[in-house]
Amino acid sequence: xxxHVGEEISGCPTTERVQTIFSTIAPRYDRFNxxxxxxxxxxxxxxxxxxxxxxxxxxxxxxxxxxxxxTMAILxxxxxxxxxxxxxxxxxxxxxEQKASRYQxxxxxxxxxxxxxxxxxxxxxxxxxxxxxxxxxxxxxxxxFREVRRVLKPGGRYAVLEFSRPSPAPFRAVYHLYxxxxxxxxxxxxxxxxxxxxxxxxxxEAFPGRVALARELHEAGFSQVQWHTMTFGIVAVHIATK
Length: 242
Ligand SMILES: C[S@@+](CC[C@H](N)C(=O)[O-])C[C@H]1O[C@@H](n2cnc3c(N)ncnc32)[C@H](O)[C@@H]1O
Hints:
This protein has helices at 15-25, 29-36, 41-52, 69-77, 90-100, 141-151, 169-191, 194-206, 210-219, and strands at residues 59-63, 82-87, 108-113, 126-132, 152-163, 224-230, 235-241. By secondary structure, the chain is an alpha/beta fold. It has one domain: Rossmann fold, CATH 3.40.50.150. A 7-stranded mixed sheet has the order 3-2-1-4-5-7-6, with helices on both faces. The longest helix has 23 residues, at 169-191. The protein is globular and about 45 Å long. The N and C termini lie far apart (37 Å). The chain binds S-adenosylmethionine. Residues 18, 22, 64-66, 69-70, 87-89, 92, 115-117, 132-134, 137-138 line the site of S-adenosylmethionine. S-adenosylmethionine is lined by residues 18, 22, 64-66, 69-70, 87-89, 92, 115-117, 132-134, 137-138.
């Protein structure tokens, strides 16, 4: 990683930083998620799948799929005809492939190393595109939104699950203390990489709020954008329709 001891960590993603962080923490990513979210992350993904409104005949593309937890939630709760799970860090994707190897349902599931900001797919290819906790880590979010819109069929939906800003003020104060102090300490304990988690919490604080994110999706050309909040607004899923 191109940062040094004592150097202030920023919440702005760079491709090099993001790839270094996730290739390093891949084997411990799931355990960190479960513990740091107090087990809530599974229900966030389950609800995101429900809001995405995936139909049995759909072709679905999961971007920045990491270790495959959203991919597995799609298989478990939606079972579309086809599901392509992608990420640009092979070490993360390999964990997801192992999980999916135990899947015995009807969906045709496959995996590919793909940069979500430059999609190697033709126009109008997918019914639904999903991303869980991924767009916050993309240096060029607008490029991702344009690309997703391009590969979606007319009327197709982009489901963006991401950290947001909790609304009740007292809760927000406690949450920020948790982000700034508990998350890096927990990250250091589980992965010995405190600075990776300092970046992750700063990236959460730097990420736009719900209205601003909806505006960005509109600006990328999506015709309709709705959002649903979860756990006092810690997390939101935006559903953008092409
Ligand atoms: C916090 S993890 C989320 C993984 C998974 N979606 C989940 O719900 O747990 C973020 C993932 O985004 C991936 N990522 C970030 N930028 C990306 C990009 N431009 N293209 C593809 N993957 C990207 C990282 O490699 C990492 O695996």
